[in-house]
Prior knowledge:
Layout: E1 10-17, H1 23-33, E2 39-46, H2 52-64, E3 67-71, H3 76-88, E4 93-95, H4 98-108, H5 124-138, E5 153-158, H6 163-171, E6 177-182, H7 189-193, E7 199-204, H8 207-221, H9 232-249, E8 253-255, H10 261-279
Parallel strand pairs: 1-2, 1-3, 3-4, 5-6, 5-7, 7-8
Helix pairs in contact: 2-3, 5-6, 6-10, 8-9
Amino acid sequence: MSSGAVRPATYFHVHLVSDSTGETLNSMAKAVIARFDGVIPIEHIYALVRSERQLERVLEEIAAAPGVVLHTLVDRDLRTALEEGCRQLDMPQIGALDPLVGALSRYLGTAISSRVGAQHALDHDYFNRIGALDFAIAHDDGQGHGELGQADVILVGVSRTSKTPTCIYLANRGVRAGNIPLVPGHDPSERLAALNGPLVVGLLVSPDRLIQIRRNRLTGLGAGDDSDYVDLDAVRDETIRARRLFERHGWPTIDVTRRSVEETAAAVINLLNDRRGRAMGTPT
C-alpha cells in the first residue's frame, strides 16, 4: 500500500449485553469506538436480558458472529454464565461499568446494589426531566410568556444558533430551559429584565458560519436565498447588535460557531453551577 493510499475500514462485531434498556452501554461503546479511525462496528444489542434462556440465545448469536462482548449485567449468576460462555468461545468480554463502580464502591465504603435497571427507576429525577422537557417545548421560541420566570436558564440568540435543540438537551439533564429569538426590530430587553430568577445566556455565532447554516436551512425548505436572512452585510449587523445587547445587560455568552449542541449545553450547565456556587457562597 502506498503512503498516500487510504486504509480500508476495519469491520468487527461488538455484542452489547444489558439487563436494562442498553442505552448506557450503547453510549459508552460509541464513545470508545469513536477514538479509533477507520473502524466500523457491527452492533448486536441485547436488551433486558434477565433469564438463563435469554442469555443462552445471546451466547448462540455471539458464537455465530465472533467479536467483542461488552456487558452491564448485574445479576451475579447471569454475569458468571456470560463470562464462562465467552471463555469457552475464546472471546473477550468486558464489564463496561466495572472500573468505575468498583472505584466508587471502595471510595464510598458501600456495597454495590444488585437491583436491575436501578438507573431507570421512575424516581424524582425522572419526573423532573419529563417536566423540564414539557417546559422546553412550551417555552420554545419565546412562547409561554407568563411562565418564563420559572426557567433555570433562558437562551437568547439570533435565528439558527441552536437554541431549541440545546434547550431539549438541557431538559434531558433536568434543566428547565426556555429560549427567545432575537428578531430585527424587536428588543426583548424589557421582557427579560422583568424576570429575576432565570439565568439569561446569550448565544454568539460568526456571520460566515451563520450564513452557511441558514442557506442549508433554506435549501432544505426549497426556498431562495436572496433575502436579508442570508445577506452578509445584514447578517453581520444582526450579530453585532446581538453582541452589543448581551454586553449592555452583562449577560454571559457562549460562542456556538464550532460547538456541538452537547458542548453548548455543557457550557450552560457550567454557568448554572457557577451561579449556584456564588449564591451558596462557595468557591467556583
